[in-house]
Amino acid sequence: LSTTFQIQIPKEHLPSQFATAGTYFLATYSLTTKRKKYGLSSSYSQLIPIVYNANNDIVITNYEDCETFLGKCQMNSEDLKGPVTIQVDTIANLRDALAEAIREAEDRILMDERIRLNTHMDQKKRRVTELYEIKISRQQNVVNGLLYKIANSNTTEERNSSQKILPAQEGKLENLRSAYREALDQIQEASISSEFPQLLSLNHVIVY
């Protein structure tokens, strides 16, 4: 904690949940989420502020509350006039509390992302299935028509013509079925993951 910034802020600038005078810690993490979807990969990072109330060993993880605390500190705080010693027990509690809080935040974010991804995948599967079922059904009708002509035609010319056309049409049907399977496989390969959260800053905040 040697690089921790130490600041102070009057309690009247803070909302009620932070208005008790004492020691707080404001940690800001960066979490990078990776998304793989339909053969394309992307990633984005988001800031996660977490406040630890050292007065009663409570972690505040509500994003809006922590974002408010961060904004108030940025606008209304000032550097401490002199360094304040942080107790060893406080440091140990802080580390444990932040580790658990960021892990829970990461799990919550990934769960929300996966729910959204699964919903999108289900919608995509339905659209792909509807599209290919129509195409496959139409092509199957073409193949069935040729097979009927081969078996029932009254003229040799029509049978021969149908036999020449049939392999290409059967190939087209198989290509559609293969494309359908590949499209479903590609949808199924979609995934969400995250990199290990990075601690960007840690502020030791004295509320007075």
The run of helices and strands is EEEEHEHHEE
Total count of helical runs of at least 4 residues: 3
Give me the Rg, rounded.
31 Å
Count the beta strands.
7
Judging from the principal axes of the Cα atoms, what is the shape?
rod-shaped
* Spatial gap, N to C terminus: 22 Å
Kindly name the structural category.
alpha+beta
Strand content: 25-35%
Low-pLDDT runs: none
Helix content: 40-55%
Mean of residue pLDDT? 93
Largest sheet: 7 strands, mixed
Describe it for me?
This protein has 208 residues and is of the alpha+beta class. The protein is 54% helix and 26% strand. Strands 1, 2, 3, 4, 5, 6 and 7 form a seven-stranded mixed sheet that branches. Strand 3 and strand 4 (58-60) form a beta hairpin. Helix 2 (88-152) packs antiparallel against helix 3 (156-188). The two termini are 22 Å apart. The relative contact order is 0.24. The model has no long low-confidence stretch (mean pLDDT 93).
